[in-house]
Specification:
Strand order of the largest sheet: 2-3-4-11-5-6-7
CATH class of the largest domain: Alpha Beta
Distance between the termini: 23 Å
Number of helices: 11
CATH architecture of the largest domain: 2-Layer Sandwich
Strand content: 15-25%
Oligomer: single chain
CATH superfamily of the largest domain: Malate/L-lactate/L-sulpholactate dehydrogenase, NADPH binding domain
Number of strands: 12
Helix content: 25-40%
Number of domains: 3
Length: 367
């Protein structure tokens, strides 16, 4: 159970200014610093607290040890038809993924679609930020990334895959967009971090210990435990989550020239990169489909409105909890947090204050 006084609320714009100042102090140019802060604040506004400003000190740690390059020279490696690949030059993924998505979106007018692989990158925040860039182009956006090797494959107990998220963003007209943003593990590592801060147990099926036994202790992951793919076990269809995660790893890592499987450089502080890596850094895959390559966008978005409306009107199990579409909870959360502020846990606030003091800048007042 959450305790209200463990949280303080902060204005999104003021928090955005603070985070961008931190990135500037770490050597980023102003435009890249602002982009990074916007991606993190977008996560907090949408209620994805595990990928918002709580991640800031983790990014700073990787900058300090030289794994994130604040001033990267991002290069296009190949560019053929709708496809492109880039080397991010150890950029933070909060910069390299939008850069790659812009390349993909530039191809829409002539090619009708565009897809970019990214190697030599780092953690890219919430996948939804990058996929949703396509919505204003009357396009369907797509993004995925591999991640810290914390997830075991079906039938295994070795860390081989990341939480490897996938996002698909589809525009509508009068209805809110359909935004499917999901990890391919049963739970993301960030949810364990939140549970640990709250001193709560986690549900069975999220995690197993190093011996392959189910655990409800969120700190077990730091003690050589493993996250589980979607489905959790054989009876729940774990092979499906494993397959989805493997797909993300192949597209993001194998196809891009980045690392893959257990060689993916970890974001978490309790793991170190493995030597003799087969690729460069961490990998992403982003892209978009132009709707007008299939039908008139106006017609499609009207059909999406009809699709969304029918699903939302479908019969719920509990009349107090109506059926919703992917992205609806996050959309509503954003409206609420823009008005009432972003809630930050006291441990996150303390962490940010330490970071601010170390960089001789000021933190902000609660809302």
């Amino acid at each position: 159970m959450e305790i209200a006084n463990e949280y303080r609320h902060f204005d999104a714009n003021e928090l955005n200014d603070f985070v961008s100042r931190i990135f500037c102090e770490k050597g980023f140019g102003k435009s890249d610093a602002l982009l990074c802060s916007q991606v993190l604040i977008a996560a907090d506004l949408r209620g994805i607290d595990s990928h918002g400003v709580a991640r800031l000190s983790g990014y700073c740690r990787l900058i300090d040890i030289g794994r994130i390059n604040p001033k990267p020279n991002i290069k296009v490696l190949r560019n053929k038809g709708i496809n492109c690949s880039i080397d991010a030059d150890a950029a933070i993924g909060l910069v390299s993924a939008p850069f790659a998505m812009d390349i993909a979106l530039d191809k829409l007018e002539i090619m009708g679609g565009g897809f970019t692989t990214i190697c030599n990158s780092n953690h890219f925040g919430i996948a939804a930020y990058h996929a949703m860039k396509a919505l204003s182009f009357d396009a369907i956006g797509f993004s995925m990334t591999n991640a810290s090797p914390l997830v075991s494959p079906a039938r295994g107990k070795e860390r081989m895959l990341g939480t490897n998220p996938i996002c698909l963003a589809v525009p509508a007209n009068l209805q809110i967009p359909f935004v499917l943003d999901m990890a391919t593990s049963t739970a993301a590592n960030g949810k364990l971090e939140i549970a640990s801060r709250k001193k709560q147990e986690i549900p069975l099926g999220w995690l197993m210990d190093q011996n392959g036994h189910a655990s409800v202790n969120p700190n077990e992951l730091k003690n050589k435990g493993n996250l589980l793919p979607l489905g959790s076990d054989k009876d729940g269809g774990v092979h499906k989550g494993y397959g989805l995660s493997a797909w993300v790893d192949i597209f993001s890592g194998v196809l891009s020239g980045a690392n893959y499987g257990p060689w993916v450089p970890p974001f978490v502080s309790f793991l170190n990169p493995i030597a003799n890596q087969p690729g460069k850094g961490l990998g992403h895959f982003v892209g978009a489909w132009a709707i007008d390559g299939f039908m008139e966008p106006k017609t499609f978005k009207a059909r999406m409105d009809h699709w969304i409306k029918r699903f939302k009107e479908s019969t719920p199990i509990d009349t107090h909890e109506p059926v919703i579409i992917p992205g609806e909870l996050e959309h509503n959360q954003q409206i609420n947090r823009l008005k009432n502020g972003i809630p930050l846990h006291t441990e996150v606030i303390a962490d940010l204050k330490v970071l601010a003091k170390s960089l001789k800048t000021t933190f902000i007042h609660e809302k």
